[in-house]
Input
Amino acid sequence: FLLIAIAGCRCQLLAFGQAALPASTLDPGCINHHGTSDSLSADKADKKYQRSLLDSSTAEALWQTLNQYMEKEQPFLQAGLKMPELAVALGVLPNDLSQAINTISGQSFYDFVNGFRVRQAQKLLLSPDYNEVTMLVIAMESGFASKATFYKYFKLHFSMTPAEYKKARDTGRGDNLSTVVN
Output
C-alpha cells in the first residue's frame, strides 16, 4: 500500500507497506546518454533542486516505488510513455518524479526509461523465441519508438550493437552476454 498525504496541492510520499527493492535497478556509476559521469549530473541536479520541498528521504521512497512499478507494470513497453502519465500512475507530481530520477540516478527521465527498455531487449535477444525476428521487432516489443534510439541505448549499455550482441550469442563468443556493461 502507498500512503499519500496532501499538504496544499503538493503530494508527499510518507510510508510504504511493501519491502524496498534489494538495490536500485540502475547502477549509479553508469554513463548517461550524454556520455558524462552520473556523479557530475547528480551535482547539477542537486543545485537545480536546492529550493525544492521534496526531501531526500521522500525522493528515495519515491525512487523505490518507481522501480517497483517499472518492474511490475512495465510501462516502459509503451513507446510514447511520458513523465506526466507515469507520475499520475504513481500518484505524485511530475516535478517530484523528475527530481527523484535526476538526483538519485543522475539520469534524465528518458535515459531511465530506456534503460528498462534495453534490459527488455536483452531478454528478447537471449530468448530462442526471438531467433528469427528482426531488430526492429525487438526494438518495438521493448518499447522503443525507433530502431535508431534502440541501437543508441543498446550500445551505451552493452558496448556493442544489438546485431553484434546477437551474433556473439549465436557464435558462442559472448562469454557473459547476460551482464549489462554500464
In short: The two ends are 32 Å apart (CA to CA). The helical segments are 38-48, 56-73, 83-90, 94-105, 109-126, 135-141, 147-158, 162-171. The chain has eight helices and two strands. The longest helix spans residues 56-73.
